[in-house]
Amino acid sequence: MHIxxxxxxxxxxxxxxxxxxxxxxxxxxxxxxxxxTHRDLVAEPIPHLDAAALTQDNAxxxxxxxxxxxxxxxxxxxxxxxxxxxxxxxxxxxxxxxAGVTFKYTEQxxxxxxxxxxxxxASGRGGVYSKGEAAAMxxxxxxxxxxxxxIGLNDIHLIRAEGVNMGDEPRQQALAAAAQDIxxxx
Length: 186
Description:
Helix content: 25-40%
Radius of gyration: 16 Å
Mean pLDDT: 95
CATH topology: Rossmann fold
Low-confidence stretches: none
Number of strands: 7
Number of helices: 6
Order of helices and strands: EHEHHEHEEEHEH
Shape: globular
Structural class: alpha/beta
Strand content: 15-25%
């Protein structure tokens, strides 16, 4: 098994999503003796999409897609910032969603070209957005499921730690629940 790990938390020393991605990778490596490609999207940011990157052959885009294609499992660290994902992760997604390469249009609609991979999304959230009135503000998980599904990545496992900025007790409860979810991964 080969794992592609993507981290996009802005604060490496205190990022919940980075802690979760590290724990998920550790679990997968212990189970599968997996190899790893790690891409830190904050330390080495991907330039945002522009017309040239979208319309011309681009070495960076090709490299990112090759890394994705080579992976059996993709572990995505996705903290929630302003109800969605960090721009660093969005820049990576903008590069790997490429017509004719990772998806194609057919008479029946778009078809993803990357089936058979397992996705683990490590979601860190300061508040609680999975239920209640705040659920309407969650544009993180729905966006990730949509864009990943568009390219054929539908086997998605969500590991969520939310409420981590609501005090020490909610933070510890959220981290403990995420640790249980990671321990249950097979």
